[in-house]
Amino acid sequence: MANIKTIGVLTSGGDAPGMNAAIRAIVRTASAEGIRVLGVRKGYNGLMHGDMVELGARNVSDILQKGGTVLQTARCLEFKEKEGVQRGIDVARKFGLDGLVVIGGDGSFRGGRDLSNMGFPTICIPGTIDNDISCTEYCIGFDTALNTAQESVDKLRDTSGSHERCSVVEVMGHGAGYIALYVSISCGGEVCLIPEKPFDYEKDVLNPILDGKKRGKQHDIVVVSEGVCNSLELAQKIEKDTGIESRATILGHVQRGGSPTLRDRLVASQMGYEAVKAMIAGRSNRVVVMQNGIIKDIDITEGLNMPKVVDEEMIQLAKILAL
Ligand code: F6P
Q: Which protein residue's CA is at the shortest distance from atom 15 of ligand 1?
């Protein structure tokens, strides 16, 4: 058991729905154990500059259902340097922090690992809509982003059906195709393009659309993960090559907002609780993960080194169901 009296919590990188539920769980679990919590505002930037606010159990009332992060967030280049991390540690100690919980993506985890390696106990919680952290099956925010995208694609399906059009929909993902793949399967995409599988325009886009038309399809949904290609140009090319009127929609940051779904609130609550328990038990340099449906903590360096694998069966499923 570690002698922890005060801990800090910060959110870093892109915000994700459910981050507030995690903050709440951390504060309340800590309060129940007699541990004081300081909320660090604006990510590692706030840590370096001592931008902190006292968080008691009542300060986190009514945030569970809110999107975004009440602590705000930032991407901090300075924290990639050793001097930045040392400054963060010095400020954290000045404020009496005995440990820190970081909620964010794998970029934020590197900051957490560096803090731990330089002697400051840190535990990370995966929070990113991209769900692209290899050591965990689930990242806070993924489910809400999926549901937001699903709602939009369903609406696009209505209008593309009415006009017999092809609708190219670009979703977020940051180099990972999880949002695109899950949305395509769940919203009936004819084509799904993800960064993990380089595509051939004729084989993977043009032919499936033309073949689908022969089988009686009257309109198409093409789901594209951001960065794979230019969606606007793709829509124009499809229109030119197939004669099917096409439109492109980029969903963008709307996927990052909104009230978290039950799944995100629940997992965020479990992960926040787990992080504080691990800290009290004296474990640091850890990341809280979901593996085989169980929430636990593992070594952060180990976690960061795990290879990212895309589920081939899911890719197959998306193709088969497009029949
Ligand atoms: O990591 C979350 C994410 O929304 C990615 O899907 C996207 O590539 C990126 O952040 C957008 O970043 P920004 O908010 O800086 O535009």
A: 14
